[in-house]
Amino acid sequence: MANTRDIKNRIDSVKSTRQITNAMKMVAAAKLRRSQEKILAARPYADNINKMLRKLKLKNKFTEHQLLYPNQDAARNAFVFVTSDRGLCGGFNSMISKRALIYLEEHKNTDIICIGKKGYDYIRQHTNLEITEKYFNFFNEMDFSISKQIADDLLKKFLKGDYGKIDILYNEFKSAIQQNIITKQLLPIVPAENEEISTLDFIYEPDDNTIISELGEKYIEVEIWRIMLESSAAEQGARMTAMDSATDNADELVEELTLKYNQVRQSSITKEIIEISSGAEALK
């Protein structure tokens, strides 16, 4: 049986761990709140660009703009895989990584683009596939300029004809305890059709194709930014939940160890009393 010193040292160790997990939970909660505010600011902009693109696509049914229709001549497609750079966030990375492997098994001629170190490490460990491009440490700064660089790189390769289609896999934020894994076609742009739009024939300046090109570029930039914000918020929500659970487990473990410490201490005191009593009886 462990002595009281060993149990006391373990109690102190668990308490120190509890302080760390509790601090991480509070940091994650603060980051989650900031990410939620940015998501609410980004969504209306992306939604309105999407509506405008849909209007233009409906009007130009016989004009196959490159941003709105797949490139049939491209030999390969691209797959963008978004995870976090750090762990300690429950099953956030493992669940989406398993979904990524399923996607890659079904889509063979696909270049892999990893955003986040955890997804990159998972694919390197579990497959022999080559990763075309990787982006790390984006979520430390959460700067729009970095998101714009990723969007510009993807758009440039798509317009050049390197890819016929670009899909993206990411965690969509729903709540602190719920994240939805989403697979979405990023390029060519598929305007949402969940709302009724006006069928009035507008006059556009300078011309429809130029406007589609300008709007499409801005849409991809803000869509990548929105997806990064969704993934960041989902990560912080998962981390907050995981650290809250770890803190609760530490509290339970401290209670168990304290009870064990008191039992061992009481047993030691009882043993000493018995030894003293036995000695006193022997002296009589």
How would you explain this protein's 3D organization?
The protein has 284 residues and is α/β, with parallel strands linked by helices. The chain folds into 2 domains: 4-21 and 242-275; 31-241, 3-Layer(aba) Sandwich (Pyruvate Kinase, Chain: A, domain 1), CATH 3.40.1380.10. 63% of the residues lie in helices and 14% in strands. The chain is built from 6 helices and 5 strands; from the N terminus they run αβαβαβααββα. It has a 5-stranded mixed beta sheet, sandwiched between helices. Helix 1 packs antiparallel against helix 6 and helix 5 (144-160) crosses helix 6. The radius of gyration is 28 Å and the shape is elongated. The two termini are 34 Å apart. The mean pLDDT is 85.
CATH topology of the largest domain: Pyruvate Kinase, Chain: A, domain 1
Structural class: alpha/beta
**Annotated CATH homologous superfamily of the largest domain:** ATP synthase, F1 complex, gamma subunit
The amount of beta strand, in percent, is 5-15%
Record the strand order, biggest sheet.
3-2-1-4-5
End-to-end Cα distance = 34 Å
Give Rg in angstroms. 28 Å
Largest sheet: 5 strands, mixed
Number of domains: 2
Query: What's the number of helices?
Result: 6
Shape: elongated
Main CATH class of the largest domain: Alpha Beta
How helical, in percent, are the residues? 55-70%
Oligomer: single chain
**CATH architecture classification name of the largest domain:** 3-Layer(aba) Sandwich
User: Which regions contain 5 or more consecutive residues with pLDDT less than 50?
Assistant: none
